[in-house]
Amino acid sequence: MAPHVTVYEVGPRDGLQNEPAVLSVEQKLELIAALCAAGLRNVEAGSFVSPRWIPALADSGELVSRLPRPPGVRFVALVPNVQGLSRLREALARSAAPPPVDAALFVSASETHNRKNVNKGIDETLAALVEVAAAARQGGVGLRGYVSMAWGCPYEGAVSPARVVEIARRLLELGCGQVSLGDTVGVGTPNQTRDLLERLLGPVRPEQLALHLHDTRGGALASVLVGLEAGITTFDSSIGGLGGCPYAPGASGNLATEDLVYLLRGMGYETGIDWDRLLAAGALAQELVGRRLPGKTLQAELATRSAGRTPPNPLRSV
Amino acid sequence: MAPHVTVYEVGPRDGLQNEPAVLSVEQKLELIAALCAAGLRNVEAGSFVSPRWIPALADSGELVSRLPRPPGVRFVALVPNVQGLSRLREALARSAAPPPVDAALFVSASETHNRKNVNKGIDETLAALVEVAAAARQGGVGLRGYVSMAWGCPYEGAVSPARVVEIARRLLELGCGQVSLGDTVGVGTPNQTRDLLERLLGPVRPEQLALHLHDTRGGALASVLVGLEAGITTFDSSIGGLGGCPYAPGASGNLATEDLVYLLRGMGYETGIDWDRLLAAGALAQELVGRRLPGKTLQAELATRSAGRTPPNPLRSV
Fold this sequence. Notes:
Helix content of chain A is 42%, strand content 14%.
């Protein structure tokens, strides 16, 4: 049996957060439906940070209250504090048939970035999350953790891997089922990825970690390969590479889901994803935001198909 | 001492061959000068296929006769037959101070593609190259070999790795100092790369091989990582990702030199390349062809710089 890898789709939140086009709730629901139809079983759908911070996601309450409930699908939404958690729970309470929606707790490994992001230092943030985690536990809400800027930071440059390890372990202690390590600006190289994973794995099991890679410098899949070799089975990605890099306007951001899935299929991993429906979801994402998305496989496959050619993908090993 | 990796620049030939803009000889020489100034020591400069086949490179004779001779730089030009070799030698004879220019022999691992490319079958091509190789040897011209479509083909789909091995070994027997394995349409995944290298290495030494990867589906650097682990020390790439994919209009083609060099630097390899001058060469390439090039690192670094930010690259391990 082929080993299973979970593709954790973050386009509707991390992607749309950085797109100039602001989608309506209906459009977001259309995109989410296409993603679920393609077989994605984990979808980051929204964010309960202050609506003033990220206007593109200010409708997350309404969105969550209208989320579908496809079999086996879990959603997740960012929650910075107890107020955010309350808003998530209120939204779920308004749903007639709420799907599972976890709360994502996030901390940056860069002190400067964390302060710019949530107006608090790292330690203060971690201390405040104790209360959020307790409230989530009490309310039966699952938790996912994010460590951003874990490979490097636009403000501080190098980030201490020891600090990343410390924050990730704290988030696991708070009850996060999984902590996703984020290369938020896509500066990492695979040796750093290997180093980070070697520092964490052992006391931490591979399934407790995910890699959230940005492909800003083209190396995301090289780090995915290192992750696979280290036993990691969850990788975050964004349909079509939706979202850019907020620190380098015009550059690429999130690893594109199609690029990730192409590699995984070629290597013989089972993802549960329907390739044609995934490309249809990518084409829809592109149509909704009204710009050519950076995902390379999406562009190659759309161009090959529109030229009437058979895709040259031999997928020799599948 | 950091291990050395050779970045083999193919932008002026493989890149420009697929660009809609046709550059003048002066513009090509300007680009080549910028690449050499950045520290690139191997540059694919032109092609002596029939000028009718590739009008963008029809001026390769004039270009070669005017090539500079920077210390340590070797050029290479494609040569399909004895006529092409004669034209290369005539061009060199017209130069007052000719630099070393090797002849590149090329064969496709796909029978259909080889016929479309040179109007002959693979075996017939290999037989004809015996004469070219002998003439080159006699004239003191060095040889490089290329096996294209070595991972898959737009006409045939899967390509037999055993056939790739056979062709590569034949090219080495013909006297090629190095054979570059080409994923011409960027369909490969790293497991295939590992498989190909395992089949070849042993009787063949790592320095006799190069990887010529296209990043059409985002996985080129994952295959570079596999190559590095297998001991490969030469990788072909194209400045800024110059050139597209001739089989998928609008899609990406050659691995971008900046993406490759960013990964190599981050992993602690020594390339002899000046980072700022390399980015300047990328910016020049973009200006000359008049379109935004697909190289991700180039776009990220240009955007970061124009935003007045310090690049976040921590290059922790250098």
